[in-house]
Design goal:
By secondary structure, this protein is an alpha/beta fold. Strands 10, 11, 12, 14, 15, 16 and 17 form a 7-stranded mixed beta sheet that branches. Strand 16 and strand 17 form a beta hairpin. The radius of gyration is 25 Å and the shape is globular. The N terminus is likely disordered.
Length: 728
């Protein structure tokens, strides 16, 4: 049963008050400003350093615990340290920022990165080395296409506050942390895109780093593609036979071509490798890189007059040997929803109250939402396929026997079955994507959820049983279609008219020889694979980890009167917050940029471990970041005979890797050689062996060219496709 803690009946500025109390600041903004020249600025800089370092340590500690590492680090311990260091930061305003950074922050970061030591593995333990001894040799040229946030971004044009970062990384290195610590407002401004165009803000130019260095490591020793590159080098690959095609992952895909000519460069790079080696190319994508690759395969065969690459219908068959889709976001990721809706990630929603109040004061949800909603790429990562896939609920977790406890400890997903497993699949009921708690009269006074929420009692096709609670029964729900309609209606004009369409069914109504069709190129549920019958697609991904899939939301009482959080003067000094008890009025005439304040948050009080609900987030199987439905459904759909999504019978193989996290002395903080976690899959021994065999064509028919299904995917697909309102 869903449980919810009692709420205060008062509407106050408690969040800002808690933040001030937590960091030792009085309610008087004068006290902050009058601490001396630049004192407030230095104080807030120091707090940012402590905050980010603490969050990094928290994530590392969580990963170590999940994968069996022993650690004496606790969240409360780090919170206490944070509190003490924050107080010291404010009280020691006479010391310089550099002194504080060297004394307090740098040792902490050094400690963290040393624990994340990614010493390259002993060669005899590497799958690449072993296969080389058996006779595998480099054959097909390889192109890597990285995912969301894993490639570095460099400064090529900046405002005065960031001119010292010219040609340095503002994302994807220790420089990223240092620039954030020094001036968070400057850092945020430079990472934001222009809201009207989705391109560069005036006077600012960030560009993707290039070469293997762009995505071999993310920061310090946190490896991304490094292990793949190393294992491929074992069989003879080098920089002449491989290329890393990194990109600015903030941009909507059409803008990638418009601003950077990315897809044109990718096309020519593939053709060049083919010309110089005489072999077809292997594409290896990770995460959002899978969606970018799917878009490219649509773009390259389309005529130039319709916005395509003009390669012709046989281009893919001529140049592409295979596409290895690692942890690909083919049908999107639910976690993009709270990022765009309320400026939240699960990681920020569930941190402790002490850390949360400081985070909100210093880098608030409004700031995060303003940043994330400027990135067109996030709209392309929203779930695809609509309620016909995500509304059936066949993939949602229900632990047999009503298991209780921390969901993170229930990583053995073989004990989980779908919530609808024992229900008649002929039922027409759909499950909600977002459940809204709208009983605000009992908690606080303020606005209701957004206008397009639907009263539960008036929606006969929405399942009610799994959202009932005796304490505060929710009376509004959104389906996925409702959610996408809201997000797109509040998006900037260029996003909904030029970049993406969320209506998969409508995609089939657009002629392939139409400029409107390119708004669906990112969506496998709205397009067909190209004419390439000899190409092979390998869907390689991890399973066995709880992955966010749906949400519980509530009114945020502390935000009913939009606070002007993080208000700074030109020097970066905090000038305090303003808030009131008045609800903001609706105005349909305002622009999307006026909609950044969101008085709604994930309801972290809602927990029901027996159904995979933890702190307002409902889970399904997946790799910890991407739900199984997105990872695997489309790959199996492509395999079905006589289906419109793969009319030319491209060969498709699904290679699931069951998560088994183990402690590693040489690589602490990561899940080990059998981890199925979203990033760890790039170092999974099974993945490394599959990739090396495919690229070298070494005994691939024996060892790789067949499905390995370790999850409940086939039953999930059967229930979805047999549901009266389900299936593609």
């Amino acid at each position: 049963m869903l449980k919810r803690r009692k709420k205060s009946n008062k509407t106050t500025c408690s969040a800002s008050a808690s933040a001030r109390a937590a960091i030792g600041v009085s309610n008087s903004s004068d006290e902050v400003v009058h601490r001396g020249s630049g004192g407030a600025t230095r104080a807030m800089v120091r707090i940012s350093a402590v905050l980010i370092a603490s969050l990094v340590v928290g994530r590392m500690t969580e990963s170590m615990k999940r994968n069996g590492h022993k650690t004496n680090v606790t969240e409360n311990g780090w919170t206490d340290t944070l509190q003490n260091m924050s107080m010291d930061a404010f009280e020691s305003t006479k010391s310089s920022y550099d002194e504080f950074y060297q004394k307090n922050v740098q040792p902490l970061l050094t400690s963290v990165t040393s624990k994340l030591n990614a010493t390259l593995s002993d060669e005899k333990s590497r799958p690449g080395y072993r296969l080389a001894q058996e006779g595998a040799k480099a054959k097909h040229p390889i192109i890597f296409i990285p995912g969301f946030i894993t490639a570095g971004l460099e400064v090529w044009g900046a405002e005065e506050c960031a001119k010292n970062l010219f040609r340095q990384r503002i994302w994807g290195s220790l420089t990223m942390a240092q620039s954030f610590f020094a001036d968070r407002n400057c850092w945020r401004k430079h990472l934001s895109l222009d809201r009207r165009s989705g391109l560069d803000p005036e006077g600012i130019r960030l560009r993707a780093a290039h070469g293997f260095d762009a995505a071999d490591y993310f920061i310090a020793t946190f490896w991304v593609f490094a292990k793949l590159i190393e294992n491929l080098a074992d069989v003879g690959y080098d920089g002449e036979r491989m290329s890393m095609m990194s990109f600015d992952w903030r941009l909507g895909y059409r803008n990638l071509e418009k601003r950077d000519g990315y897809f044109t460069k990718l096309k020519y790079t593939i053709e060049a490798h083919h010309e110089t080696t005489g072999e077809k190319v292997v594409l290896i994508s990770h995460s959002m890189g899978g969606t970018v690759t799917h878009y490219f395969l649509q773009w390259v065969v389309a005529e130039k007059r319709y916005g395509g690459g003009g390669g012709g219908k046989n281009w893919v068959e001529t140049f592409i040997h295979s596409w290895i889709n690692l942890a690909g976001t083919l049908l999107g990721v639910p976690k993009a929803t709270p990022a765009l809706l309320s400026g939240e990630l699960k990681d920020t929603a569930v941190i402790s109250p002490q850390l949360g109040s400081i985070l909100e004061h210093y880098f608030s949800r409004e700031w995060r939402k303003e940043l994330w909603t400027s990135w067109g790429s996030l709209y392309g990562m929203l779930p695809k396929g609509g309620d016909r896939l995500w509304g059936i609920g066949a993939d949602l977790i229900d632990f047999v026997g009503g298991a209780s406890g921390d969901l993170d400890e229930m990583s053995n997903m073989t004990t989980a079955v779908a919530s609808l497993k024992n229900k008649e699949v002929t039922s027409k009921k759909l499950v909600p994507y977002i459940v809204w708690s709208n009983k605000t009269d009992d908690m606080c006074s303020g606005p209701s959820p957004p206008d397009n929420t639907t009263p539960l009692a008036t929606v006969p096709n929405i399942e009610q049983e799994h959202v009932e609670t005796e304490e505060i029964p929710p009376d509004h729900v959104w389906s996925l279609d409702d959610t996408l309609e809201h997000l797109y209606s509040h998006a900037e004009e260029h996003i909904k008219t030029d970049l993406f369409s969320h209506d998969s069914q409508n995609g089939w109504k657009k002629r392939s020889s139409s400029k409107d069709k390119q708004m669906h190129w990112h969506d496998p549920a709205a397009t067909q694979l190209p004419k390439a019958p000899s190409m092979r697609i390998y869907c390689v991904y991890g399973v066995g980890l709880p992955t966010e899939r749906a949400y519980h939301y509530k009114v945020d009482c502390s935000s009913l009167g939009p606070p002007t959080a993080n208000v700074t003067d030109d020097a970066g000094s905090v000038s305090g917050e303003q808030c009131s008890d008045d609800a903001s009025s609706e105005d349909d005439s305002h622009s999307a940029s006026d909609d950044l304040h969101s008085p709604f948050i994930i309801d972290t009080d809602v927990t029901d471990a027996s159904r995979g609900i933890q702190m307002g987030v409902r889970h399904s199987d997946g790799d910890g970041s991407v739900a199984l439905l997105s990872l695997g459904y489309m790959c199996q759909k492509w395999k079905e005979p006589r289906n419109k999504y793969n009319p030319h019978r491209v060969q498709v193989f699904s290679r699931e890797k069951k998560h088994k996290g183990t402690a590693q002395i040489r690589d602490p903080g990561r899940g080990g050689p059998e981890s199925g976690e979203h990033c760890d899959i790039l170092g999974n021994d099974g993945t490394l062996e599959d990739v090396v065999r495919i690229a070298t064509d070494f005994e691939v028919d024996i060892h790789v060219n067949h499905d390995e299904i370790k999850s409940d995917l086939m039953r999930i697909m059967d229930e979805i496709d047999s549901h009266p309102n389900g299936g593609l």
